[in-house]
Design a protein that fits this description.
The chain has 4 helices and 6 strands. By secondary structure, it is α+β, with helices and mostly antiparallel strands. It folds into 2 domains: 44 residues, no CATH class; 115 residues, 2-Layer Sandwich (PX Domain). The protein has a 3-stranded antiparallel sheet with strand order 1-3-2, with no helix packed on it. Strands 4-5-6 form a 3-stranded antiparallel sheet. The longest helix is centred in the last third of the chain and has 19 residues.
Amino acid sequence: MNITPERPHEESTHGGGGDDGGCLSYYGHDDDHAGGGGTLSYNLHDDDDHEGGALQLLSPAPITLEDHTVTPGENTAGLWARRAQVVDYAIVSGSRTRAGAYVAWNCLIETFEGAQFTVRKRYSEFFLLHEQLKSTFPRSVKYLPELPPKSVISKFRPKFLESRRQGLSYFLSCILLNPQFAGSPLVKDFLLHS
């Protein structure tokens, strides 16, 4: 594939007639053209003697939030966690009929000092933290991600639980990588007191 710039009203080198031979043109302004208002076209030609490849569309990679700061600075004084994620869950049984059963979410936190710890939290605790942060930081609500939705019917289904795990992990990462939220006693109490 090669790119050939062509000025309007000049002969094209890529063949005659109405067939462009599979070329793609881009038209933009060319201030160097006599008169100052012409266009410049770029044609992409398929030539057998030039190596080239087709353009390839890549699907986006999943987003992972992780802070690569070595140590917090003056604008990030409230930060203390390098990484936070909800790694898995456990279904805690109630009775034989699952009455009273609930899901406990295992949260892995890594600090700037390299220490790691895991805490188990219920969805209701995440919900309470979300509500407390909304009322404590009313001007920062736009930085507070929504929690994944509740479901009475799909509550223990693996697909639903995996979707919820990802949503809770995103929520936790956003909270702990935001200096205002991470420095809050609400967040520290949430993680350090079970």
